[in-house]
Design goal:
The protein contains no helices and two strands. The chain starts with a strand and ends in a 32-residue tail after the last strand. It has strands at about 1-5, 10-15. Strands 1-2 form a two-stranded antiparallel ribbon. By secondary structure, it is an all-beta fold.
């Protein structure tokens, strides 16, 4: 990733950043207690 900061039309900073960021795939957000397609949530196993 690269960042260039200008002030009054001149380059003030020129930085390069390394990142290992990987976005999560297929993450969806639903209302609590609801699943897509109207499915009922499963109960957690006993003891959890």
């Amino acid at each position: 990733m690269r960042r260039v900061v200008y002030q009054d039309g001149e380059i003030l900073r020129n930085d390069t950043f390394l990142s290992h960021y990987l976005p999560w795939q297929a993450v969806i957000q639903v209302a609590p207690g609801e699943l897509p397609g109207g499915q009922a949530p499963e109960s957690p196993p006993a003891g959890q």
